[in-house]
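Figure S4 source data
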Amino acid sequence: MPEIKKVLFPVDFSPQCRSAAPFVKSWIGHFRARLTLLHAMVILPESNVTYGIDVVATLRKQTRESATASMQALAEQEFGSAAAGRVLEEGNAAEIISHYARTEGMDLIMMPTHGFGPLRRFLNG
C-alpha cells in the first residue's frame, strides 16, 4: 500500500467541493496524512480594466478577503482542526495545483468533478 502523508485538496467552495470533503477527511484520517486546502483565485488582468490600477487593486483585495473568509468557513465546517494548511494563490487553477503539488511533494491530490452531466463528463474525462 502506498504511503500517503501529504494530501492536497483544491477547493472552489462549490457544492461538489463540499460533497467531496467527507471523503477527503476519511482519507486523511485513515492515512494520518497532513491536509492542505488550496484555492486558485481568478482575477481579471489589468489590461482588461479601463478605470486604472486602483480598481484592479481593490478587486484583488476584496477577492482575497472573500476567498480567505470562504476558506476559513470551509475548513472549520468540513475539517475542524484537521485542516493544517490553507493556501490562496492567484492564477490558472490547473497550473497552480500542479505546481504546488510538485514543489511541496504532495502524495495525493483529491478533487471533485465539476458536476457536469454524463455527456460532458464523458467528453471532458
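Figure S5 source data
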Amino acid sequence: MFISRYLDDVVAWAPAKVNLYLEVLGKRPDGYHEIETLMVAIRLFDTLVFRDAPDLSLSCSEAGVPTGPDNLVLRAARLLQDHTKTQRGAAIRLIKRIPIAAGLAGGSTDAAATLIGLNRLWQTGLADSELASLSARIGSDIPFFFQTPAAWCTGRGEIVEPVDFPSPLDVVLLCPSFGLSTAAVYKNVQIGTRGADATPLAEEETRGADATPLVKGDAIRAALAKGDVDLIGRLMHNRLQTAAESLEPRVGEYVRMLAEYGPAGQLMSGSGSTLFGLCRSPDEATRLAAGLTMRTKAHDFRVIVTKTL
C-alpha cells in the first residue's frame, strides 16, 4: 500500500493480488471455508482520494461499481468511525483500474486503503496491526494488504504470515469480460481428501468419492523463497479453479490458451475470473501478452502485463 498527502487530500494506491496457491481444507462451523493460500501483491492499482467532509460519501470512476452503503470502502470508513468515535466524515473518490468480481481482491484492497487513508486523514493514530485486525470484521482478504508484498494466509484468509522472496515475478493477466460470484464458486468446490489424522471440519460430505488429495503448500513456499520461477510455476495450484470451470467453461478455455505460450505456469486467481501466466522474464511476458492480444478480437478479455511488488 502506498500513501501520500497532497494539501487537503490523502491519496492511497491500492494494489491487486494473485494467488500462487490456494487450497480449501473444508467447511467451518461458522459457514466460512478453511483455506491455505499464498498471495502476492501486483503492480495494478486502484487509487483512492480522501478529503475532509461533513459526511461520508463515495464516488467512482467506473459506472458499474455500486457506491452505496454496502460498498466495502464505505463499510471500512464506518467501521473506523465507530471504532475511534470520530465525528469526522470524508468525501472519497475511487479511480478503479482493478477489474471487479475477478479474483484480484479489488474490493478488499480498496477497503484496506480506506482504513489506512482515513487513519491518516482523521489522525486517529491507530497502528497498522490494529487496522488489520479491524479489517477482518468485514472481509477475509483485507488483512493481507497490511502485510504485502507476499504472505501465507490461513483460517478463512484473515491469519496472515508475511513471506519474503528475492526478486519480483513477471505476470501477465488475462481478464475476461465476465465476473464470477465468490459464493457460487465456493458452493461448487469439491474439497480434496485428507489424511486420517486431520481434524474434521463442519461438512466432510463436500468431499466427493472422486475428490483428489489436498495439495500441501510447503513446496511452493520454498520455491518462492528461492525465486525458482519454473518450480513455482509447476507447483501453482488453486482448488477453486475446477469449480469455476464448471460454472463458466471459458475459464478452462483461457487456461489452456495461456498454456499454449509456454509460461512457467498458468492459473486462475482466487475465485476468478482472472487468469494469469507466470513468466520467466519481462521479454517472455511481453511475448505472451502480444500473443494473447492478437486473440482479443475473437475473445472478450483484457491483457495486462505486470509484476509483483
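The domain at 170-307 is CATH 3.30.70.890 (Alpha-Beta Plaits). The CA atoms of residues 25 and 243 lie 15 Å apart.
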